[in-house]
Amino acid sequence: MAEPPAGVMGISSAAIGVGEYRRAEPYRYQQALRRSVYVRMRDGVRLAVDYYRPAVNGRAVGGRFPVVFEYTRYGRARPGPGGVTLLGGRHYSAVDAAGLMPLGNEKAWSEVLLGYGYALVVADMRGSGASFGPSHAEGDDIEGKDGFDLVNWISAQSWSDGNVGMLGSSYLAEVQPRVAAERPKALRALAMVYGFFDGPNTAYAMGGIFRNGWQGGWVSNVASLDNRSTDENAPITNISPVDADREQRDLRCAVSEHRAGVDDEYFQHLEEFKTVGVVRDRLPFIDHYQLSGQNNLYTLLPRVNASRVPTLLLGGWHDIYANDMLYWYANLDVPKKLIYGPYPHGRSGPMPDDPRDAERDRIVARETLRWFDRWLRRVHNDAEQRPEVTYGLQRSVTQTEWFAADTWPSPAVHARDLFLSASSARSVLSQNDGVLTLTAPQEAARQPWRINYSTSLGDLGTRWAGNVYEVVVTTVDMKSMTYTSPPLVRDVYVAGIPVVRVMLSSEDTKDADVHAYLNAVSADGTSRLISEGMLRASHRTLGRAPYRNFDLPFPTSSSKDIANVPPLSQTPVPLEFTMVAVGRVFKKGERIRLTLAGADRGNTLAVEQSPVPRLAVQVGGGDPSWLRLPILGDRNQALFE
């Protein structure tokens, strides 16, 4: 399916067919029956497993079914009021005391598959929920090995037809390639929603700057879920025991073992991250796989590709892993499809029932059904014939325009440079109020910049908890350096990963952090965050990424390069770095703004220098500063008056 030509709007999700699979066909089953057991791993450790079979009139249906497997760190189930059980995962209906769950909730991805005749297995990872064992560092090799054993157990059950597909978001997505790398025979397909690829290059850090804000929150949350942070004599109210453990004896023993666990390995290096930054070769697990402890996901690539497990990738432009899912697509050499929409890691807005959340849940459920029908059931549907890439660009809260491409980046997307200028945009009371122009100013100009350490995107700027759609950042702009375009004369479709180049100098500091924000400015002057990127000046040496990264700038963040890079001085040096991927329609009359800040207090880790450094940005001349946007359509299209 070809892209619409320049000047033609995208089409609806229904017209492109995304999220429409079998929607006209009613569920085959209206109920599912839950049971819970312990399953013993190869080393004797027991994991808690819930399994659900389609049911009719309160009784499990006989026969064998293909199985959807969710493998979670966040709790497979918890007790609810009145004897019901509340499932972990996304929006499941409650299970009554008899184990019956009504089906029909389109928000719950796996419930949709149950309704069409799949069985479901949800398992607590080792060291979490009701499973035994100490809690382990994220990405420990044991996750894949336990997953291998669980897939083998699933395939041997009387209600399983021997075909297993894995589904899940975030950690439940990231564990899927770990299991695929072990190559269990029954694993036929993956459906990954929002998973990191190279965490230290996008999610956990960018440009050597550690994202301690959301990382600290995640570590604390997981410790609480594992009950490591509670009194050992306190009642256990957040975990459901397995069926045979009504007195919770096994559950209490399991939770006691969790407390011997470990936290994220990044947090052993906080002082170094603050002063030096995240140095890739100082943390071996970033670029080399280890059998015990934390691991970066891209290091599994050779084994995952050798598995040949077909993989459906579902990403969101507002997600913290927006770049990572594009990198997964570029580096997976297995049967694959990529679907991208304007969705965050959590909910889209502050209010419930945001239309983007409903759209996302429908697309994930229906496209996973299409994918699993093809690879688990061997149905000759159109899963393989559909576009390699389907992506939706956000026009408004209620409107997403959809496009298709044969690869990524789309051949219809081209790079367009907007140059920083010292002219006044008269758009905001910032430190400089500069302009973005289509041509670089002939004369170089030096614009003084004094860092304001109180600058922060706040909780809503982390891309982690949801509610991150176009956060208002006008006050951030006022504390920073801004470069704002004239009003757009047409709608501009941006689809891909922006790049920033800043010519930076300093009068009195050897190092500094640069945070770049891409904002959309409405006619009333309100500035809304669209994307962000960051780079520590001492990490500015670029090299070749250890994977396919669309030939984008890749700071090596190696000990050698950091030691050899000259300190900042009054001679400008280039800082070139990526931002988080964007999928948005910038509407006619809006302005595009690049904001440069020197801090994001509460979200990133840095030394607040005293006295405050005196920096400068050089614009124009033979070595200009610029913002590079990936724009869909004619590369010569007019943008501004």
How would you characterize this protein structure?
This protein is α+β, with helices and mostly antiparallel strands and 641 residues long. It has 12 helices and 29 strands. Strands 17, 18, 19, 20, 21, 22, 23, 24, 25, 26, 27, 28 and 29 form a 13-stranded mixed sheet that branches. Strands 1, 2, 3, 4, 7, 8, 9, 10, 13, 14, 15 and 16 form a 12-stranded mixed sheet that branches. Helix 2 (109-115) packs across helix 10 and helix 3 packs across helix 4. The two termini are 34 Å apart. Residues 1-6 have low confidence and may be disordered.
Could you name the key traits of this structure?
641 residues; alpha+beta; Rossmann fold; Jelly Rolls; 2 domains; 13-stranded mixed beta sheet; 12 helices; 18% helix; globular; disordered N terminus
Count of discrete domains: 2
Mean pLDDT: 92
CATH architecture of the largest domain: 3-Layer(aba) Sandwich
How many distinct beta strands?
29
CATH topology of the largest domain: Rossmann fold
Largest sheet: 13 strands, mixed
Radius of gyration: 25 Å
* Beta strand %: 25-35%
Can you tell me the CATH superfamily of the largest domain? Alpha/Beta hydrolase fold, catalytic domain
Helical residues, percent: 10-25%
The best one-word shape is globular
Total helices: the number is: 12
Helix-strand category: alpha+beta
Query: What's the CATH class label of the largest domain?
Result: Alpha Beta
